[in-house]
Design brief:
Elements (H helix, E strand, L loop, with lengths): L1 H4 L4 H10 L10 H8 L3 H13 L3 E3 L6 E3 L1 H16 L1 H16 L2 E8 L2 E8 L14 E2 L5 H8 L3 H7 L15 H14 L2 E4 L6 E9 L5 E10 L10 H16 L8
Antiparallel strand pairs: 1-2, 3-4, 3-8, 4-5, 6-7, 7-8
């Protein structure tokens, strides 16, 4: 480690010091960092001073140790906001690829406030297409995308989005919380939610959740079409490709844990 440290320039050493505080931002002092990274104590002390001056590290006056400072938090917030703002831009090529492969309509549903809405629609090339426009809200208790999101959301988020009575769109719409929560248990196992004529008769959909860097579900990829063309077999190429698409988008948002 020490021989390797000699090859690093000052910027690389500063970055190595900053990343050594991940993932839990535990307080560390000069000696701990020096031993951990193999840097000379004087080098660590000098870099610490620069990082504190620019807000990348903060020193605890009681323990005299250091932890990540406000500048790092500002950068993290900026990165997080850019992911949310650019989500459609990030997801679009993956969604388009899924649409091209199966020629069915693929939708990016995004969680916002007390509902989910369609943020991007890649229309299928087949004769039968689905009604709906970007910006349209979807019913949280019946949409495949919303159900995929809610299954992995907090209790508070579920209660917020599922407040009030469930409207019955078709005879197959689930209108009881007990029935919906049973579905959530299965969705958490498979990472796939289905809408089998629950909103429109003759229409089916499958959705898989997209997670951000904190592991929070923020969107869902949905493939939809005539119910006879939307495969509900979890091992089918369509469902495998759907999950893979959602995972690739999640990866671009720096989510690292695979669902299956």
């Amino acid at each position: 480690m020490k021989s390797q440290s000699k090859k690093l320039n000052a910027i690389e050493k500063a970055l190595a010091i900053l990343t050594s505080f991940t993932p839990y931002n535990q307080e560390m002092g000069n000696l701990e960092i020096s031993k951990k990274l193999g840097f000379h104590k004087a080098t660590v002390s000098r870099i610490f001073q620069d990082l504190v001056r620019h807000g990348f590290l903060t020193r605890n006056p009681q323990t005299k140790k250091f932890f990540l400072g406000p500048t790092v938090m500002d950068l993290a917030r900026a990165a997080n906001q850019s992911f949310k703002t650019d989500l459609v831009h990030i997801a679009k090529p993956f969604i388009d690829n899924l649409r091209n492969r199966f020629e069915e309509t693929v939708i990016l549903e995004v969680l916002s406030g007390q509902s989910t809405f369609m943020a991007y629609i890649a229309e299928g090339s087949r004769l039968v297409r689905l009604a709906g426009n970007v910006g349209d809200r979807v019913p949280s208790h019946a949409s495949a995308g919303a159900k995929a999101l809610l299954a992995f959301s907090s209790k508070e988020t579920r209660e917020l989005l599922l407040s009030g009575n469930f409207h019955r769109f078709t005879k197959k719409t689930i209108t009881s919380r007990e029935g919906l929560y049973r579905q959530f248990q299965e969705i958490r196992k498979s990472a796939v939610a289905f809408d089998q004529e629950e909103i429109d008769e003759g229409t089916g959909a499958a959705g898989s959740p997209v997670f951000d860097h904190e592991g929070l579900p923020i969107a869902a990829v949905v493939i939809a079409g005539p119910v006879q063309r939307i495969n509900v077999d979890l091992d089918s190429p369509m469902i495998s490709a759907l999950k893979e698409t959602a995972e690739k988008i999640s990866s671009k948002l720096h989510y690292t844990k695979r669902l299956s």
